[in-house]
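User: quick one, sequence for these tokens?
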């Protein structure tokens, strides 16, 4: 699947991992096990609200059935539209794949340059949103190669790491993300307190 679109590749890898770990394995999503996460993905792709009742109904079908549904792919519109599919589902499946991987002791993947490119693009969106939440301070995202992206006032918080790690941090996976946070102490404190989940 190396030439497959990111969303399809991450979907298949996540499904394989869910099948391997079973329904009760932990995830980074607070209060959710692997069956909860699979139910969430099914509901999301079929535009059903993730109420407790809907989640319970999906989970009652069992993890194998949920995995089969996920392996069947997303509905055509809007999830498979070229150009949109990577942005809409690629980041979602990458993040949830990491939710399962890291909660079960699997480390960072370093062999996915296309994931790094997607994460850098998406971290711009989440970085802008995070900067709004820590005003009057600014936020700078910095990759290891030093390429920065700045939002808001200069001299604020600096979040440095690989793009995938920045994306995980900005999407609320702070403890699992391998990043370095530096800069103005008040700005850093504001970022640590800010709600930045997707």
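Assistant:
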């Amino acid at each position: 699947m190396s030439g497959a679109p990111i969303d399809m590749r991450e979907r298949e890898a996540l499904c394989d991992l869910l099948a391997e770990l079973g329904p009760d394995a932990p995830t980074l999503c607070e209060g959710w096990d692997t069956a909860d996460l699979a139910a969430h993905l099914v509901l999301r792709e079929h535009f059903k609200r993730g109420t407790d009742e809907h989640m319970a109904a999906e989970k009652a079908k069992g993890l194998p059935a949920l995995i089969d549904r996920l392996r069947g792919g997303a509905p055509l519109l809007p999830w498979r539209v070229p150009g949109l599919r990577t942005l809409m589902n690629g980041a979602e499946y990458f993040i949830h794949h990491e939710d399962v991987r890291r909660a079960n002791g699997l480390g960072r993947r370093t062999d996915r340059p296309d994931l790094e490119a997607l994460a850098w693009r998406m971290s711009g969106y989440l970085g802008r949103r995070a900067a709004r939440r820590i005003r009057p301070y600014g936020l700078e995202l910095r990759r290891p190669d030093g390429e920065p992206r700045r939002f808001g006032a200069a001299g604020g918080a600096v979040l440095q790491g690989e793009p995938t790690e920045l994306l995980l941090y900005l999407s609320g996976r702070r403890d699992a993300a391998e990043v370095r946070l530096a800069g103005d102490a008040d700005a850093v404190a504001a970022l640590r307190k800010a709600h930045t989940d997707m």
